[in-house]
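Give me the fold.
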Amino acid sequence: MMAMHQDVQQKAYDEITQLSTEDGRYTENHLTNNLKYLEQCIKETLRMFSPVVVTSRFTHKEITLTDNLTVPANVLVVALILLANKDPDLYKNPQRWDPEHFSDQAIEKRSKNSQLSFGYGARTCIGSKYAMMSIKTQIAYILRNYHLSTSVKELKREHLKADLSIRSRIGYPIKFTRRREMKQ
């Protein structure tokens, strides 16, 4: 997505370089705590291309929802995370990839359980914090050293397939150009 959105890539790159020393080093602590915009980009990508598209739970007792609907006991409830992550009541322009969906102001307006890419509550993914730290570390390294570009201008519905997770049918045609080569 950053290869398609050069302005977002530049903003993330600027954030990374501001936290890096002259030799390009940074600490894990800096990555975990200070790369806020990069985290917004990651969360937005997870929202659009959720690693899990559906989940289910079995009810052991009757549950009354906030809008006076009742879910009976002993039924399987299926949650379509793919659709929930694109709810227009939760996300302005939900079909558009926009890291601002995860700005502090946007998050304040939503319920804490509105982003379900790693689950929520007692059933949240046990490795979600590690995954976020790992993703930040890898993307920070890549963006610090490479400029990304692509011939793909837009990901259309027909470019994607959903099975266990959402994937590209057209591959990932990304060009990596060393940043130091760009400066010469």
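The first helix runs from residue 6 to 19.
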